[in-house]
Design goal:
Helices cover about 60% and strands about 0% of the residues. The protein is mainly alpha-helical.
Length: about 1400
């Protein structure tokens, strides 16, 4: 342990060796100073190959090696590292000086040397060569360590100096006192590169010189070996020539048995192998000679060497073995030094392109891109060579090199190992180039945006930002090299080498797609950078495809990758499937069927991939769900395979091939999908697994389930239209894994359980899948027939599906259950999402604190990327569930196909008064609450969209910090350091426009969900308030949910409950309907805005017809009517809304019948009066008739003196027969009426005491505040007749009413004060003990009431016309049948008469 005597001799402190600085050489000279002086000696410019150079690396390479090794040891040792590196850095900038003055060329190129006597020249002395290689290896490793340390210490200038020197052009001068690179790198004067493709990077020059030195030294060593054997084994060669078989040749392959054969000596020379001081395994020649001598003495003692020829043969064998072992040691040491130097080069190259990459500023981003490409191309050329040392031919060209002798098997094995090590560096170079292309994409977006007219206040075009400047042809050449590298003999013999090349190809394809996608994002604006530039990137993709499609390389590559995907080891299977995914995407550009799909099907690989999930992988995948799994590789392989299958399923041919090979059967039978861990089974996974390498069990199960669900959804959407087999198999999947799917839905619905992004994603996929299957009548009817046998399937998920709505539709309290489960989500929870807006599930008004997240209130959580993602998932769950509810109401089972068109199966409970999050079964109140929240969200989304559009057009108003936040919040764009302020503002403008478009899409989703909710609300109200609900028990007892008992809220309402529902609906729905009536959309917000607006208004009118009508017992859904009535009503709706899509028309056509049931509703208008007497009923009727005459136009909304103030005049005289026309109101009068209406308020009276009339109501209330109009609803005519038949009073009764107050403040106060209090009056008065039942209606005006009455009138007239038309059709049909019957009877009688003859 430190300190030792060595530390003292080197100058380190004995008390504080790890912190105290080294002494100055002027104060105390140490051994370290002497060593550094030796390494520093003669650092001026020199001829790299001067045999008389004073450079220690040339003259004393062994000493230089040991000195560099010592420096590396001191820099890497934990005790001496900091002190040593600080001294070397401060005193003389040691590392940069050594790198810039060390000769790059180790030995001259053998192809330029005409000398035949290589050994005499001494240039290729293997001892000197591998000593220089080791010295460079230690220097490069020390420099890599120094460069990484500088980056960590943020010493930018020093790190920049070393990094830029490494990637700089070797033909340029270093500057200062450094040597000229033209000397160090043997570049001739005046031969500097003209372009970056012709330049010689120093890092690659070091690599090339190292390979050249090893190649030439190996060749020289082999020639010396041959000459030595010819010199010392000439007699043996002649003897062997006489004894050998014809055609035999001497083998110099060390792997062959004859190479080191000992003949009759019979010894094991491997027993003499030792490891030398460098770590290389060599033969101990002293031990070998002793062993050979001992064997010779044994032979002589046994008398076997008595013959002279035998003795000579044994001596020749001993000489041959010693010579060959000597040269074998030289070759092994040379290769070991070469491998050590390559590892050092690999370290410094990887540090340069990772941690020190951003310190390279030569040429900016374009310079870094060119550097990455040069490194990629240079190393790819090496990996793609058939023989990486002796030949320059590549796998694609199959051209042999200049040295014709083939390498031995041992050499091939060694170099395969080296290429395997370098292949990871190749992957790193490709990944770096791909990341630079990502930055180029951001710059391209900025360049395109800066030249858009009107963006960011630009009035003139700006010069385009520099994007990718790499020409297409070299890129295609690099792609061809990568493909060839995967097909070389070395790659085919090494799975790791082949896998790393696959990874490099993946990064290359990913970068090309990102660059092309960024530049194709805005085609019209490409004129600023030239159309040819845009086409060139398309040419890049098409060229990469052409290389594979127009040669045998494509099929050979697919064969290799598919074989690895099927049979390779765990880690490389994942890479192989990922590459197949990328190649499938590349081949998708072809117009023909996908080549990958055809190849896999033809070679039977696809069937193997599908079948192996169940045959070989099921048990291994099950093991990954154990609490402490041994390996997660099976999980990663499964994910990669399913991602590839999902890519195939996105095209028709791929989806069909997957179906043919039984993918749905395999997924249905997979046992691991049933192993869902229970909630909380991880025991606090949020904390225990926060810093663990292995994810929680729930997260692992999520990684298994979601690929299967996504693949199933892709298949049913791609080929599931009329494919009944697919739907039955999809239903079987749900049945087989019912327990897991139901558990997920229940966990999402239970308020006590935490919510995660994974759980919401699973619930979204399940609800979507169940919705798709529920629309298939054949599947639903099949499940209905199996319901009594214990079968569980899609129908059994009915209640768990609907239970999600109360939890997510009624409030935002679900966000309190939200928690992060991994580092990515925790990081997203801290990032503000600039595009958060308009979620269906959020209203932006909650302020509940969240204990799991530190972002504060629920509203703050929603404004993060994490919260926004969760809101979008909940939105999708709501929309899927509403769509499912609508589908299941239109797919009743247990009825004939004819009755199915008129049948209705409710999915919501009838209660409309209260909507609670704790409800298990959703009700009409849930739909109403969701509709209210949706209206609020639409308005908020409008405001956010307008603000984003404003900022996009005026981005100069934003601060630089805000601009950076906008760019950082986008998950699609990486903020590049190369963007200036103008470019960042332009890019922010594009992102803001994209966010505004995203808000518009969210608004469209909101509108669609709102329409679904309103349709469900209308149809359920129609059903529950009609006589059909009384006979609906059979609709609850049949269908896919019949296997489970129905909860009590889902029972049909009684007569009394129906009356209660009508009363509650008339109180709670008018404000909602009023806000819905005010909704108006534009085409910028919602496509086909006019169609959506008219459709919502039509639904509002129909709901008003139900809520504000007299409540008769007619059949509003038309269950008792014939089918043609529904058809005629559908036709009338289509005429009213010609722009509506066929889907919406079909969706709502079953409930299109009008809900008014009585033509006597004109008698309900009981009047509006300011005074009154017993005869005011007739006056009110007359006023009603006057309103009818004066409002014949359907667009007129005035009713009962809506805007004129005639009610203030006390006119009780009976009008004459002919009434004058209403006088048109002036603009001033209209403004006055609107002002008066805005100030007024309406109170709803839910119960009117028996025989109380409007005059009495006015009399009792006008003492509290000024009363305007009063409207009381007369009892239903049928109810009145029943009352009279049972002996009741013939006086008129009223059931409910509305009272208008001139001041809404007084209206609210009066309703609050008098509700549930005695009416009072005279002590013995008839109404003294009756209670007031008053409720103030916020945002409800008198015109809403009159609009409803006018709507009812129009509906009655339309229904009457429809019935007349239907009767006419039935009569015509009947007459046709009569005529037809007569004709048939005549024909029959005629035939009978003829038969009798």
């Amino acid at each position: 342990p430190a300190p030792t005597i060595a530390h003292y001799l080197l100058g380190f402190s004995l008390t504080k060796p790890a912190s105290e600085d080294l002494p100055d050489p002027s104060q105390r000279a140490t051994c370290l100073h002497t060593i550094l002086d030796l390494l520093r000696r003669d650092n001026r410019a020199f001829d790299a190959f001067d045999g008389y150079s004073s450079s220690m690396l040339v003259q004393r390479p062994r000493l230089a090696e040991r000195c560099q090794h010592l420096v590396y040891h001191l820099c890497s040792d934990p005790v001496t590292s900091e002190v040593t590196m600080r001294y070397l850095r401060a005193r003389e900038n040691y590392f940069f000086t050594q790198m810039s003055t060390t000769p790059a060329i180790i030995v001259p190129d053998l192809r330029d040397n005409d000398s035949e006597d290589l050994g005499a020249a001494g240039l290729y002395n293997p001892v000197k060569v591998y000593a220089q290689m080791h010295a460079r290896a230690w220097l490069w490793r020390s420099t890599a360590l120094e460069l990484h340390t500088l980056v960590l210490q943020d010493s930018r200038s020093r790190a920049k100096l070393i990094a830029e020197w490494l990637v700089g052009d070797a033909s340029q001068q270093v500057g200062g006192d450094g040597a000229a690179d033209s000397d160090v790198f043997s570049i001739l004067p005046g031969k500097s590169a003209q372009g970056f493709l012709d330049s010689r990077m120093r890092l690659l020059a070091l690599f090339d010189s190292l390979r050249q030195a090893y190649r030439d030294s190996s060749i020289a060593l082999e020639r010396q070996h041959q000459e030595t054997e010819r010199e010392y084994l000439a007699d043996q060669a002649n003897a062997l020539a006489m004894d050998a078989d014809d055609g035999a040749a001497v083998s110099y392959d060390q792997a062959s048995p004859e190479y080191l054969s000992t003949g009759m000596l019979d010894i094991d020379i491997n027993s003499c192998v030792v490891v030398n001081e460098r770590g290389c395994a060599v033969y101990d020649l002293h031990a070998l000679v002793a062993l050979l001598g001992q064997a010779e003495r044994l032979l002589e003692a046994s008398g076997q060497l008595s013959a002279s020829a035998t003795r000579q043969s044994v001596h020749a064998t001993i000489r041959r073995v010693v010579i060959r072992c000597f040269f074998a040691n030289q070759e092994r040491e040379l290769f070991f030094a070469y491998a050590s130097a390559l590892r050092g080069w690999k370290e410094i190259a990887e540090i340069a392109v990772t941690s020190a990459w951003d310190k390279i500023e030569i040429g900016g981003r374009v310079g870094r891109e060119q550097t990455a490409f040069q490194l990629l191309r240079g190393l790819a050329q090496v990996v793609a060579e058939l023989d990486p040392v002796y030949n320059t031919g590549t796998a694609s060209s199959n051209v042999r090199g200049w040295w014709v002798d083939a390498p031995t098997a041992e050499q091939e094995l060694r170099h395969t190992d080296l290429l395997t090590a370098l292949s990871s560096t190749l992957t790193l170079f490709t990944e770096r180039l791909s990341s630079e292309w990502t930055r180029a994409g951001a710059l391209t977006r900025a360049s395109l945006t800066m030249n858009k007219p009107g963006v960011s206040g630009q009035s003139r075009q700006l010069p385009p930002a520099i994007d990718s400047k790499l020409p297409v042809e070299p890129l295609l050449e690099a792609w061809k090299l990568l493909v060839g590298a995967a097909l070389t003999p070395a790659a085919q013999s090494s799975l790791q080498l082949r896998g790393n090349v696959y990874s490099a190809m993946l990064h290359f394809l990913s970068g090309v797609r990102k660059l092309a996608a960024a530049e194709a994002e805005d085609t019209p604006s490409m004129s600023s950078v030239g159309p040819q530039h845009h086409l060139s990137k398309n040419k890049l993709l098409s060229g990469a495809l052409s290389i594979l499609a127009n040669s045998t390389l494509g099929d050979r590559l697919l064969e290799s990758v598919s074989a690895d995907a099927a049979d390779a080891s765990d880690a490389w299977k994942t890479v192989a499937f990922s590459l197949l995914d990328a190649l499938t995407t590349l081949f998708t550009a072809e117009a023909r069927p996908n080549r990958v799909v055809q190849f896999l099907a033809r070679k039977n690989f696809l069937a193997s991939f599908v079948g192996s999930i169940l045959r070989r992988e099921d048990q291994a995948i099950r093991s990954t769900l154990h609490p402490d799994p041994a390996s997660l590789n099976p999980l990663y392989i499964y994910e990669a395979k399913m991602a590839f299958f999902l890519r195939l399923a996105q095209r028709q041919d791929g989806a069909e091939k997957l179906m043919e090979n039984g993918i749905l059967d395999v997924l249905a039978d997979c046992g691991f999908l049933d192993l869902k861990p229970n909630a909380g089974s991880d025991g606090g996974a949020a904390t225990n697994y926060a810093d663990a390498f292995i994810p929680a069990r729930a997260e692992r199960y999520h990684q298994l389930l979601m690929p299967a669900l996504n693949l199933l959804l892709a298949l049913v959407t791609r080929i599931g239209r009329d494919n009944q087999t697919l739907w039955l198999k999809a239903a079987r999947f749900v049945s087989q894994h019912f327990g897991a799917l139901e558990s997920i839905l229940k966990e999402a619905a239970i308020p006590a359980n935490p919510l995660s992004i994974a759980l919401l994603t699973e619930a979204k996929a399940i609800t979507s899948l169940v919705f798709y299957i529920a629309r298939q009548r054949a599947v639903v009817e099949r499940e209905a027939t199996l319901a009594g046998s214990g079968y569980v399937g899609v129908g059994s998920l009915h209640l768990p599906m609907l239970a999600l709505l109360p939890k997510f539709c009624t409030s935002s309290n679900w966000i309190k259950r939200l928690m992060t489960t991994n580092d990515v989500e925790r990081a997203q929870a801290q990032i503000s999402a600039a595009s958060v807006a308009g979620s269906l599930s959020s209203d932006g008004n909650d302020g509940v604190k969240d204990p799991d997240l530190s972002s504060g209130s629920v509203k703050e959580i929603k404004q993060t990327l994490f919260g926004h993602q969760a809101c979008e998932l909940v939105d999708a769950i709501i929309q899927n569930t509403l769509a499912y509810a609508q589908a299941i109401t239109e797919q009743p089972v247990g009825v004939s196909s004819v009755e199915a068109a008129r049948s209705f199966r409710p999915a919501f409970a009838w209660s409309i008064e209260h909507s609670r999050e704790s409800d298990y079964v959703p009700s009409l109140a849930t739909l109403a609450s969701f509709a209210r929240r949706s209206v609020s969200q639409i308005e908020r989304a409008r405001r956010i969209r307008q603000e984003k559009l404003r900022l996009a057009k005026n981005s100069a108003e934003m601060t630089t910090a805000d601009v950076r936040k906008v760019i950082a919040a986008s998950p699609y764009v990486e903020l590049s350091d190369d963007l200036n302020t103008t470019q960042m503002r332009a890019l922010a403008s594009v992102l803001l426009l994209q966010q505004a478009q995203r808000v518009a899409r969210t608004t469209a989703t909101l509108v669609s969900a709102l329409e679904q909710a309103l349709v469900l609300l209308w149809r359920h109200l129609s059903f529950f308030t009609s006589q059909s609900a009384a006979d609906a028990s059979d609709l609850y007892s049949t269908g896919p949910v019949s296997s489970r008992p129905q909860p009590s809220p889902m029972t049909a309402p009684s007569e009394q409950e129906r009356e209660m529902l009508k009363s509650d609906a008339s109180i709670s729905l008018p404000p909602l309907l009023a806000s819905l009536s005010e909704l108006q959309f534009t085409n910028d917000e919602v496509p086909n805005a006019a169609t959506h607006t008219s459709f919502i208004q039509m639904l509002v009118r129909r709901i008003k017809d139900l809520v504000l009508r007299d409540g008769s017992d007619a059949d509003p859904l038309g269950f008792a009517n014939s089918n043609s009535n529904s058809d005629s009503e559908s036709d009338s709706e289509q005429e009213e809304e010609p722009g509506r899509t066929s889907m919406i028309r079909t969706r709502h056509s079953h409930g299109a019948n009008d809900n008014d049931s009585s033509d006597s509703e004109s008698d309900e208008v009981m009047g509006e009066s300011e005074g009154g007497s017993d005869g005011e009923d007739k006056d009110d009727k007359q006023i009603g008739e006057e309103g009818k005459d004066s409002n014949k136009d359907d667009d007129e909304d005035y009713f009962v003196g809506d805007l004129d103030d005639r009610s203030d005049q006390e006119t009780h005289e009976k009008p004459s027969g002919k009434q004058p026309k209403n006088k048109a109101l002036s603009e001033k009068e209209i403004l006055r009426a609107q002002k008066k209406e805005k100030k007024s308020g309406v109170v709803y009276m839910s119960r009117v005491p028996p025989f109380m009339k409007p005059a009495k109501v006015r009399h009792l209330l006008e003492k509290y505040a000024e009363i305007g109009r009063i409207y009381l609803v007369e009892e239903d005519e049928k109810r009145r007749k029943r009352r009279l038949k049972s002996g009741g009073n013939r006086r008129k009764q009223f059931v409910e009413g509305w009272i208008e107050f001139r001041n809404k403040k007084y209206a609210k106060s009066v309703a609050s004060m008098l509700n549930n209090t005695p009416m009072g009056g005279k002590k013995h008065g008839f109404y003294h003990d009756d209670l007031w039942n008053l409720k103030y209606l916020p945002k409800f005006k008198w015109r809403h009431l009159t609009e409803q009455l006018a709507s009812e009138k129009a509906a009655r007239e339309q229904k009457l016309q429809s019935e007349i038309s239907q009767s006419r059709k039935e009569l015509e049909e009947y007459m046709k049948n009569v005529e037809k019957a007569k004709m048939l009877s005549g024909m029959r009688a005629k035939k009978e008469a003829q038969a009798k003859r």
